[in-house]
């Protein structure tokens, strides 16, 4: 019988990341300066990121070596196992084989350390002493806290207020790894104080938290900012997921018909899918689908435009699908993936028809997540529940079409620190929220005035 | 370079559990009936456990086959990886090599499912429809909730009140797996109601929760009780840990000088160590050491006597090191491992000089745990912090003696659902509690009146 999981030895870990910029049929439009709207060069980014990371951001080299020091840390939990979800398959009773990469085996419980480790390493190499970042549900903040500690950097995390309050364990985890975690908007930055004065009841947003983290980085000594998603270098570092999955599937002679990931900023989706997009560009038949929340439908409803990454318009303008930089999902949404935009790379792939996207209601995602936990054991993060809902949906389609399908998806993390969301779901405190059409119209109108790529 | 971790393929998983009863130089004294003080036979245990499990409890067969249905579930996370703790070694700067079994990779985050899965399976086979159990910190209750769900059994968990209140995520996790979790003492049992009436402020104890779970099991239809530690069959099922570790160490040509585990009821310590005890009985040089909290010093201070497993004296009398069945650790103790007794097998091994034991203060255990998290990444469960403190201590000894040592220990689980304990530690709310000598004297006196094995 085919094994339940495919493991790789330490020495089988991929030694290079894959850079899709080398293979894109149409290059990305350049980021624009927030004030002048002129293309930004590496030097414009230098106050925010160290130059060795900026080089990765703009590189068009196809393969980039993973430094030994990074590999050493990766090996703490990588290569991550590839699983066959036999029990979930039985439950679905559809003609599908389901494989998943279990990124929940990392110490932080998600895929986020894949990017946090190299970022901490490169900042350290560049002489930086302190990192700032933002976090929504807390996965990224936890990962960067751990990575900073491992390379001897200080770390401060601005955590979106609503999550900070709903998920106290996340702060505790970051503290355990020696980092500082503040509720955002905070009193520590000008933009934070300004928003608190203007909107004392704001639940916060990733856009606000990013503004705070960047302000802190550019106004503090020896400090840089680290972003957990969206940018090219983040997706680059995450490709280790898809590269490992390809090795593992090859071992058992399988190639997927469908590759799936959940989509917030695009880091885990990009991580699993970009090596398969490469195959697709080269002519291989494979469907690649991102799953997002219907209350933050960036890919399925957001226009493609230049937009800021943050509320305070401190970041460059990025060419991406966006709901507008002031978009804040309804507080009732408990599933994470709340970012208003999505990676330019993912946006470009959608425009080029190389990937597709589907949106799911939160009740369907938690329903899928609970079914998963009760059959496969592992409790998925609320974010991960979105891709599980997409798998359920894909299985239903396969059954209707009477077509056999092999699905590969990225199980981006476990939900053991997010159990309050499950508690809300199981006790009936989540509602079947539907984004009001007037809100969509407001978004479309707001983005209409942004420059077009 | 030696790899950071040694993984086994699915098909390398051990197919049998190891039963130390076949090799004990002196057999265990039999359990006694709680009322008559006569040895109990299998039939006396039948209202509590199904007969197929009772057979394992009393078996003297050296190797017991693991059923295919159990192996299938084990393979969800087993074989668990064996790690080399290189970063922690660097921190200690002592002549030690440290290997650990990472049992935190299970869906429940600890070693407990190793026993929960076969228990749910055997109960199901025996026609049982519902399981009851108790849980302290929550590791066992979580594991049995998951296992029950996997085999279609109902499950109710009585959780020690102080933990129920300190660790709300544990209840949420059990609920997510479809189980019911009640604060103990509860209103659901006679003994629970009685204790609530008599001691309205009791923090609860494992002894009380066990009484409740057993009362529920013996007074409900198609229901049996499942115990997560102490008994022979539990340690038997846990030997999969040590058996895998032996295979993994053999692959890299290493044999440990010291094998360590933390000790509550003895399940994870027994799990890692019994296969090595077998080697030791056969003449191999290996030191085997259990680590326990100094506020519940069963092995290091508790006399060896017959004692009840629970407060209400419903269980048979077991021959074990015990602090008395009414012993309740001070509520300030945050580290788990609160049981008043310990497995008869572990007690017997200590009597025979085949193992040793050391006790650690809670501040030292959390100090070790935080150092571990900040170097190795994975955040250990508070219980696991005890064995890490023992490793720190052993490394110090090795340094003092100028002697090279290979240490193997069981990293019994992660602490991601126990972060409130870390929070209490990091914010200075834990005290360096020392068990008062008068309490020790009270214990010695209380146990003096129990029958002697």
What would you say about this model in short?
By secondary structure, chain A is of the alpha/beta class. Chain A contains 19 helices and 15 strands. The radius of gyration of chain A is 20 Å and the shape is globular.
Question: What descriptive keywords fit this protein?
Answer:
homodimer; 453 residues; Rossmann fold; 7-stranded mixed sheet; 4-stranded parallel sheet; 19 helices; TrpB-like_PALP_sf (chains A, B)
As a whole number of angstroms, the C-alpha radius of gyration of chain A is 20 Å
The count of β-strands of chain A is: 15
CATH architecture of the largest domain in chain A: 3-Layer(aba) Sandwich
Instruction: Estimate the global geometry of chain A from the Cα principal axes.
Output: globular
| Class from secondary-structure proportions of chain A | alpha/beta
Name the largest protein-protein interface in this structure: A-B, 46 and 46 residues
Strand order of the largest sheet of chain A: 1-4-5-15-10-11-14
Q: For the record, what CATH class of the largest domain in chain A applies?
A: Alpha Beta
Helices of chain A, by number, come to 19
Domain Tryptophan synthase beta chain-like PALP (chains A, B): 77-410
Family (chains A, B): Belongs to the TrpB family.
Cofactor (chains A, B): pyridoxal 5'-phosphate
Catalytic activity (chains A, B): (1S,2R)-1-C-(indol-3-yl)glycerol 3-phosphate + L-serine = D-glyceraldehyde 3-phosphate + L-tryptophan + H2O
